[in-house]
Design a protein that fits this description.
It is a single chain. With 175 residues, the chain is mainly α. Helix content is 71%, strand content 0%. It contains eight helices and no strands. Helix 4 (50-62) packs antiparallel against helix 5, helix 4 runs antiparallel to helix 8 and helix 6 runs antiparallel to helix 8 (122-145). The longest helix has 24 residues, at 122-145.
């Protein structure tokens, strides 16, 4: 009986159902597949970011401006990671830029002591961000080593990378 009611409802409201599916972009199997893979990617990122979410909440309570800067840098790192994994043009430079973004993030977090004074969980903040970005870098190293392209440059020490910009302020560079 319930199946018959559902079938009648589908028959009566088939245009509305189709318009709704079209609105949420799953009107075909290809779009449905893409939508599911995008949701899966977001879910994986949420799980990987687990301990970092608590750290970001603590950082937001401490200093909102620093929190916004850190979110922007983390977003940039994820964009660079995707470009390296997709092997887009000049992905070696994107890989190198991840190290520079990590250095910027660590310096912003270390300068938090100057802004707000000593915090009881400051080392934990830095360790959580460092661990998260190091996991991303390790994942990229494994992916690049398994690639069919020349990957001798993957193990080079990129922590000494500096941009060629004379207008950067190096007052609080620790990392």
């Amino acid at each position: 009986m319930l199946r018959l009611i559902i079938l009648i409802l589908i028959f009566i409201y088939h245009k509305e159902i189709f318009n709704y599916l079209k609105k949420i972009n799953i009107s075909s199997f290809e779009n449905l597949k893409k939508n599911i893979s995008d949701k899966n990617k977001k879910f994986k990122n949420f799980i990987k970011k687990g301990p970092l979410n608590n750290t970001l909440i603590t950082l937001k309570k401490t200093d909102k401006k620093t929190y916004k800067e850190c979110k922007i840098i983390l977003h940039n790192i994820l964009i660079l990671k995707d470009r390296v994994l997709e092997r887009k043009k000049n992905y070696r430079y994107d890989y190198e830029n991840i190290f520079y973004e990590k250095k910027k993030l660590m310096n912003i977090l270390s300068s938090l002591i100057v802004k707000k004074g000593f915090l009881k969980n400051h080392e934990l903040l830095i360790d959580d961000f460092d661990f998260y970005i190091s996991k991303i870098i390790d994942e990229l190293k494994i992916s690049l080593r398994n690639a069919k392209y020349n990957s001798d440059w993957v193990d080079v020490n990129y922590y000494s990378i500096e941009p060629r910009d004379e207008n950067i302020n190096y007052n609080y560079d620790i990392y």
